[in-house]
Amino acid sequence: MYSVLIIDDEEPLREAIRILGDWEGLGVTEVLEAADGQAGLQMLEAHKIDLVMVDMKMPEFSGTEFLQRVEEVYPELMTIVISGYNDFEYTRQAIRSKVVDYLLKPVNRQDLNQALRKAVDILEAKRQSESDFITKNMTLNMSIPKLKEKMYLSIIDRSFKKQTNEAFLPLIGADETDNYFGAVVLRILNADQVRRTRFNGDTELLHFAVANVVSELAARDFSCFSFPNPKQEREMIAVYTRPGGFNEDSAFRAELLVKKLAATLSDLFHIRVAAGIGRSSRDILGIADSYEAAKAGLQGLDLLKPGTVLVAGPDGPDEPGSAAREVQPLASRISLIRNALEGGHQNQASGVLGDFLRKLKGGGRFTFSDADRVMQEFILLMNDAALELGAAPGLLPGDSGTGRDFPGLDYEDFESFGDLLHRLLDHYSAVIRRSAPVNKPFDITDIKAYIDDYYYEDIKISVFTEKYYLSREYLMKLFKQEYGFGIHEYVQKVRMDKATELLGNPELKIQEISEMLGYKDKNYFSKAFRNYFGRSPSEYRTAGQR
């Protein structure tokens, strides 16, 4: 009935798929093989193929190129992607293509046959004229994962109707009466940093990596499908499904999964997460209540009591008072900060903010919910103040998520939250100074502060000469008189000081540290480090561990 083509340059993997596949039970009468993408295209021309299984990482003609070609010539062809944990950059095209499923190496029997069954079910539905509404309701660019994501989101926002979506219920296990369903909410605490250093700035790739790890780790106890929350940039939602058993057991296993997930994401990608877990129920619509409970539990975690893994269980945080509370008023402080910045007194503004943060910390409890409210209020009020003082719209963090020249809004505990507010203050201070450079005195500390914050960028002196309308020679002389270093020397010093700090973390590779410091070439970083300290980064790290 159906014909399958396996494309992989490794013969043992092709043979393993042949052995593990339940071809007869799936109604597959022909299994063909190709050793690379080019040969696979030739097979497609010569045979009628219903489903292709393709490895993404192949020499000569990769899986990415193959999928791009298939989109052009065979837009209706069904595909299953095969990849490894560290091959996410090669599967960028797979995310955008109509792949039915993703299989991680090494391929096991259960995952393989589940993916094949999913593909065969879709093929059968397409062949049945009375069931063609499935294809009519799936746009050309909507894969099965995207359809599931849309269904779960509609359940969470309580717009899902069982009657009108009855045919799709098997996709999410809602046709089984003994299944338990629950939700987990993950907050990626260092999203901006890890996106830049590990995923080349690609948010979609970051989400794909997390989703694959969630699916792989959950496979032993229950199925788990995760996706980014389109309304919250740093949030991912995982819906878990478990057949039979007791509700309490499902919640307990979900909590174990989250803790293991946090450790695995940290080990593989240096991704740090906090999580909330909602109670499960037999009703698929109960996912909405489970999500809201998980979100409330996550938002109620106390930033003053950080741990290696921040997890709120199905009953929420253990500490009392997790509901929304009144925090220190900010509006009156903003007027003091605004007046200080208007007068060019950066240190005074920092002092006002520092006093505010000390009072927050003295409250004894400060949650993610509190922090989000304070940060949003701070950005809103500082935006208004900056605009009143002549700042140009479009340069402020609140206007476009993170702003054009602001590195990000990550925080994971109270200390990093305080650092974030101080960086936001520095940002607004610089924006306000740029808005009226003629009327305000030049302050050489501005250049030092910029270097301290953006040492990882390609800093050119021309940036400062154009900004302050001063000559290169004058700026360099003034900076050296004030700090005892030339501007380029100080950039090097900040980078090297940061390098010694990062080398103290054994989990970071030299290449990763090089990229975090702004060096595009690991060898150039090593040479610069040796010239500065008289030893290589590896030698420095080894000496520090003795």
Automatic annotation (TrEMBL):
Keywords: Cytoplasm, DNA-binding, Phosphoprotein, Transcription, Transcription regulation, Two-component regulatory system. Residues 445-543 form the HTH araC/xylS-type domain. One of its GO terms (cellular component) is cytoplasm. The keyword Iron does not apply. The modification 4-aspartylphosphate is found at D55. One of its GO terms (molecular function) is DNA-binding transcription factor activity. SMART domains: HTH_ARAC (SM00342), REC (SM00448). Gene3D superfamilies: 3.40.50.2300, Homeodomain-like (1.10.10.60). It is found in: Cytoplasm. InterPro entries: CheY-like_superfamily, Homeodomain-like_sf, HptR, HTH_AraC, HTH_AraC-typ_CS, Sig_transdc_resp-reg_receiver, Tscrpt_reg_AraC-type_HTH. Signal peptide: none annotated. The keyword Transcription applies. It comes from the Bacteria. Pfam families: HTH_18, Response_reg. GO terms for biological process: phosphorelay signal transduction system. Residues 3-120 form the Response regulatory domain. This is DNA-binding response regulator.
